[in-house]
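Budget justification aside, the reviewers requested a transparent look at the raw inputs and outputs of the sequence design task funded under Objective 1. We therefore reproduce one unedited record. The lines immediately below are the structure tokens for a 337-residue chain.
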């Protein structure tokens, strides 16, 4: 989310420092057999930049990984997150940096190994936020102003989901009983059915609140988290949903969004994406890949900038919390058809 391709959850790259590895070095593969290191590995990702900036953005990262691994590391741009999974499944890529749903699919379909999770501003997961332009209906108290630390912007929250004057935490689930106030015929802006924050988690939360999301509400289709916020801001919908906190993406065109769009509930936490590797890679290569990627953001100021500009991340972590990915798989199963 964040930049349009990023926060759809975005992807980046990985590797680890081992200089001068010879082709004769053998190591146990994830599948349990001894195998030589490959001469090269390919990383499939969906970057946040486009066009001519892409090569410039990728070069510092792939050069760094190649130098420190001692093998060639190539980056391949995927058209979307699903394409990263297919690249791994067909061995066109051995490493993928992708969103949570694609991580689950890669693990489930191709026995991929989850090695890292994306970190954005210190968090490995985020809530979907329920927004409204009608706080009198959905809020049990007056909206409180709290600071969204990632941008330093004060935003409005009610139902006790954030503390007045404090730094917002964005921790869900919170105040989900407020969704029961969505009355029949209410216009609710929802994003594409593949969007975890804009559709999947909100629909599950509304259903658990007793709302028939097909018959009880009027769905207003929107594209992107920014447009979900603007739908409420402009009065096209009474309620919408987006990642925490998508209101920061529209402050230029809607400078008073903090007053006009109030957050009144948080869903369960949605896992960030991360990095998965093919089970054909040698175990020691995977270990080094994991270590280098885990430390990449701290390796230099340039690395920090490249990482954020390329994939919208502030770090990676080897604390993968695979149960969050599994839970996301359960959510995905509800929308399989």
């Amino acid at each position: 989310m964040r930049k349009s391709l990023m926060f759809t959850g975005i992807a980046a790259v990985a590797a680890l420092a081992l200089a001068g590895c010879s082709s004769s070095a053998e190591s146990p593969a994830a599948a349990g057999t001894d195998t030589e290191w490959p001469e090269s590995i390919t990383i499939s990702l969906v970057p946040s930049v486009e066009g001519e900036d892409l090569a410039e953005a990728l070069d510092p990262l792939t050069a760094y990984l190649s130098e420190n691994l001692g093998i060639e590391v190539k980056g391949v741009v995927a058209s979307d997150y699903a394409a990263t999974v297919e690249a791994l499944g067909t061995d066109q890529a051995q490493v993928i940096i992708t969103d949570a749903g694609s991580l689950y699919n890669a693990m489930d379909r191709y026995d991929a190994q989850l090695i890292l999770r994306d970190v954005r501003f210190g968090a490995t997961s985020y809530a979907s936020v329920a927004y409204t332009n009608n706080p009198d209906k959905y809020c049990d108290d007056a909206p409180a102003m709290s600071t969204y630390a990632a941008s330093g912007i004060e935003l409005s929250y009610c139902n006790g989901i954030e503390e007045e004057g404090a730094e917002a935490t964005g921790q869900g689930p919170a105040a989900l009983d407020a969704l029961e106030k969505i009355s029949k015929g209410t216009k609710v802006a929802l994003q594409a059915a593949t969007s975890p924050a804009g559709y999947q988690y909100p629909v599950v939360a509304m259903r658990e609140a007793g709302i028939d999301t097909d018959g009880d509400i009027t769905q207003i289709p929107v594209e992107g988290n920014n447009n979900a916020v603007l739908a409420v801001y402009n009065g096209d919908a009474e309620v919408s949903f987006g990642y925490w906190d998508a209101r920061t993406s529209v402050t230029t065109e809607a400078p008073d969004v903090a007053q006009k769009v109030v957050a009144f509930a948080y869903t369960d936490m949605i896992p960030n994406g991360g990095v998965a590797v093919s089970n054909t890679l040698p175990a020691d290569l995977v270990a080094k890949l994991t270590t280098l990627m885990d430390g990449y953001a701290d390796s230099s100021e340039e690395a920090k900038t490249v990482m954020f500009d390329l994939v919208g991340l502030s770090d990676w972590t080897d604390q993968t919390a695979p149960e969050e990915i599994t839970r996301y798989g359960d959510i995905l199963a509800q929308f399989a058809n």
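The chain has two domains: 4-121+272-333, 125-270. Residues 4-121+272-333 form a domain with the D-Maltodextrin-Binding Protein; domain 2 fold (CATH 3.40.190.10). Computational costs for records of this kind are itemized in the attached budget.
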